Amino acid sequence: MEPREYEPQVGALLRIAWEALQAELYAELRAAGFDDLREVHRPVLRYPPIDGLRPTDLAGRLNLSKQATNDLLRDLERLGYLRLDRDPTDGRARIIRYTERGWRLFDTGSGLSRTIGERWARAVGEERYADFHATLREIVDVTRQAWPRPLQADLGARGGGLVQRADDP
């Protein structure tokens, strides 16, 4: 039987681009002094920032058990990226707060991600990249409407959706 050739579908293309971005991003973060991060930390550190969430809300966002989520949070707390404060509205609950080092990590990662996007824009053309970015935002909005539970948390339902900055094409 002859091997079949397949045209990569959108999921595969998005995954390949995502994996390339993540590999470069984390290599650059390590070079910038965040060399104590591990692969397991990635889901906790992605957009949107987790500052202000309760650990149980984060567990739902990550689709992890509360115990696994708390283990990750305690590890990041030990590394100095965050702290767990008492929730002022419920003394039994905790609120995740970034430390100065945690915000520095988030800001550095955001800047690196923006730089990678700018390089991709130069590679394919600024206008094509801007169209791609706008189309991807539309797809995210449509997807969020169709699958609200997991994506509402991932895309900032508490803050009204994706935040578009003035310098964000």
From TrEMBL:
Domain of life assignment: Bacteria
Domain HTH marR-type: 7-141
PROSITE patterns (alphabetical): HTH_MARR_1 (PS01117), HTH_MARR_2 (PS50995)
GO annotation (BP), single: response to stress
Any one Gene Ontology molecular-function term assigned to this protein's record: DNA binding
Organism name: Virgisporangium ochraceum
Protein name from the UniProt record: HTH marR-type domain-containing protein
Matching InterPro entries: HTH_MarR-typ (IPR000835), MarR/SlyA-like (IPR039422), Tscrpt_reg_MarR-type_CS (IPR023187), WH-like_DNA-bd_sf (IPR036388), WH_DNA-bd_sf (IPR036390)
Protein keywords: DNA-binding, Transcription, Transcription regulation
Residues spanning the signal sequence: none
UniProt entry tagged with the keyword DNA-binding: yes
